[in-house]
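Researcher: Next entry in the queue.
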Amino acid sequence: MKTWHTLWVLLAIPAGTDAQVAPPIIDVHLHALPANSQGPPPLALCLPTTSLGVASAGSAWGAELLQGYKEPPCSDPLWSPETDEELMEETLALMERRNIVGVTSGVRRQMWQERAPARIIPGSRVLFNGGPRSIPLDVLRSQFADGSVQVFAEVTTQYLGIEPADPSLEPYFALAEEMDIPVGIHMGPGPPGAPYLFSPDYRARLHSPLLLEDLLVRHPALRLYIMHAGWPMLDDLLALLWVHPQVYVGLGVISFALPPTEFHRYLRRIVEAGFAERVMFGSDQMVWPGALEFAIRSIETADYLTEGQKRDILYNNAARFLRLTEEQIAEHHGL
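Model: Structure for this entry, 335 residues:
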């Protein structure tokens, strides 16, 4: 049997030498959603982001936000597809061209998986509507056991105002640890003004990765990654990564939704602090396939990253965290 040393030798072989397979990418935060999940399509996105907007006092923030999607303040916006089928096909075509495998959750995930099984690692976003008590543990155990859910992500209890160490979540994290299922937890930005949209209990203080400490000590074997990297709580994140070396970071929405200077300031500090081997690419792509491409390029063009660090962030770190087999890694590389 080959060792992990052999696996990293495989990863070092240039992709595309024979079959012209693009270097593989693992997106640890992808969504298979309806085209209208963020509002009535088409919706515009201005990239790169230059301003995060301002609300008028006493206004209906949701209407203002939607107006920005419909009347974008840029000359060349990225428009979302208008139908569920177009959104799926455009995203899967990009994943094929860029050789992307995505940890995917969302109501249309099974349909995407049936269309492109080699591109989808099934995740679960079950901790959102209704709170954790609405999820039967026996159902979750069954899904973990039969492989229909392979990553417990995205855990979105921040939208409910629930801290990760809340006792109500304990059985779910205990089950994930018992069955060795990776967990991705939302800690960081939701939509701007989230409490005034659809999540009245969403709180900024829940961005802090330090809220994970008691959970991590109770469950030392839990494989956990922080989605959106806890932005902007950089010092809290670095402190947690130092004290808890088993924790990984998924970049998520900050890879395209923040102004590039701010995103790179944040990522560069994580890397310079010595944690490049625990950063994983994630896009949080919802209804804009082009945002996924933009997020990838934000890593590929980062002049403070070595080529090795870029490959680690785009693939190698996630391959290690997810414990991909030799066969899976070889397949991704076209070997």
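Model: The longest helix spans residues 84-98.
Researcher: Noted, moving on.
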